[in-house]
From TrEMBL:
<keyword id="KW-0456">Lyase</keyword>
<dbReference type="GO" id="GO:0008534">
    <property type="term" value="F:oxidized purine nucleobase lesion DNA N-glycosylase activity"/>
</dbReference>
<dbReference type="GO" id="GO:0006284">
    <property type="term" value="P:base-excision repair"/>
</dbReference>
<dbReference type="GO" id="GO:0003684">
    <property type="term" value="F:damaged DNA binding"/>
</dbReference>
<keyword id="KW-0378">Hydrolase</keyword>
<keyword id="KW-0326">Glycosidase</keyword>
<feature type="domain" description="FPG-type">
    <location>
        <begin position="224"/>
        <end position="258"/>
    </location>
</feature>
<dbReference type="InterPro" id="IPR000214">
    <property type="entry name" value="Znf_DNA_glyclase/AP_lyase"/>
</dbReference>
<protein>
    <submittedName>
        <fullName>Formamidopyrimidine-DNA glycosylase</fullName>
    </submittedName>
</protein>
<dbReference type="Pfam" id="PF06831">
    <property type="entry name" value="H2TH"/>
</dbReference>
<keyword id="KW-0227">DNA damage</keyword>
<keyword id="KW-0863">Zinc-finger</keyword>
<feature type="domain" description="Formamidopyrimidine-DNA glycosylase catalytic">
    <location>
        <begin position="2"/>
        <end position="113"/>
    </location>
</feature>
<keyword id="KW-0511">Multifunctional enzyme</keyword>
<keyword id="KW-0862">Zinc</keyword>
<comment type="similarity">
    <text>Belongs to the FPG family.</text>
</comment>
<dbReference type="InterPro" id="IPR010979">
    <property type="entry name" value="Ribosomal_uS13-like_H2TH"/>
</dbReference>
Length: 260
DNA sequence: AGCTATGTTGGGCG
DNA sequence: TCGCCCAACATAGC
């Protein structure tokens, strides 16, 4: 559940189920998830309530009524589960029980997720070295960021200290729409290409976020449904290839995306 | 059985 | 110091 659009969905999910409910019990899972002593989580959360939420990139910060934020990073497989029954999910790493008998769990099978406590949004942003939230970047800012960026464009876009929120899937997606090869060097891109990338980034994030929240399918004109080696690309021009960039599986169309 | 997976971090190398 | 590559983490699904 991890890139900006999925986290945006988790934000709505929490906002619509779990706000302003007094936490009467707290259950904690695997040690490695917790970035402060586990007893601190228990102390802070018990008797408290979530009153709002804020997203920075792939992080979701839940504002608690009494001080502090509970911060969630979903790793590769994290998601929230709000429920009304007794059995707790096998992979629940944090379960809040509310006064009304309902519960909210952070489910994280691969345990790549993380939970933090922090007193301030800005401190947290600095500690994690997070760049600006992708959908809040202006075109001028985007162009400016690329002026001093080197290395492959895909690695640049995945760098959370550069821009926060993009990951493997949607970087491939936006580069496909922009017709830019993922191994192209950031320093070789023209202003025009960077502007095109900016618009495609915004389009992709907006469209995918709407698909996630409305429960609709990703458009067939997108690369994602064709993210299979040898599949014909959505433009009907080439066959999808898979290479490694920055250690991640990277799907692209060699006809639509020429390296520079 | 073996390969793949929406993420992050740390080490080694040139 | 940078850019790049790889391995590690832990589990599920094809």
């Amino acid at each position: 559940m991890p890139e900006l659009p999925e986290v945006a969905y988790q934000k709505i999910y929490i906002d619509s189920t779990s706000l302003h409910k007094k936490i009467v019990d707290v259950q904690l899972g695997a040690d490695k998830i917790f970035q402060s002593p586990k007893k601190d989580f228990k102390e802070v959360l018990l008797g408290n309530e979530v009153v709002g939420s804020h997203q920075i990139g792939k992080y979701l910060l839940l504002k608690l009524e009494q001080n502090d934020y509970l911060v969630i990073h979903f790793g590769m497989t994290g998601k929230m589960d709000y429920f009304n029954h007794d059995e707790i999910h096998k992979h629940a790493q944090l379960t809040l029980s509310f006064e009304d008998g309902s519960k909210l769990s952070f489910i994280c099978p691969r345990k790549f997720g993380k939970l933090f406590l922090t007193g301030s949004l800005e401190d947290f942003r600095k500690q994690q070295k997070l760049g600006p939230h992708a959908t809040e970047v202006s075109e001028e800012q985007f162009l400016e960021l690329f002026e001093k960026k080197k290395g492959s464009v895909k690695t640049a876009l995945m760098d959370q200290s550069f821009i926060a929120g993009l990951g493997n899937l949607y970087v491939d997606e936006m580069l496909f729409h922009s017709g830019i090869h993922p191994k192209s060097k950031a320093e070789n891109l023209s202003k025009k290409e960077i502007s095109k990338m900016y618009r495609d980034m915004m389009d992709v994030l907006d469209t995918v976020t709407r698909c996630k929240t409305e429960g609709t399918k990703i458009p067939d004109t997108y690369l994602q449904p064709h993210r299979i080696k040898g599949e014909v690309c959505p433009n009907g021009k080439g066959k999808v290839e898979m290479i490694k960039v920055g250690g991640r599986s990277t799907y692209f169309c060699p006809e639509c995306q020429k390296e520079k």
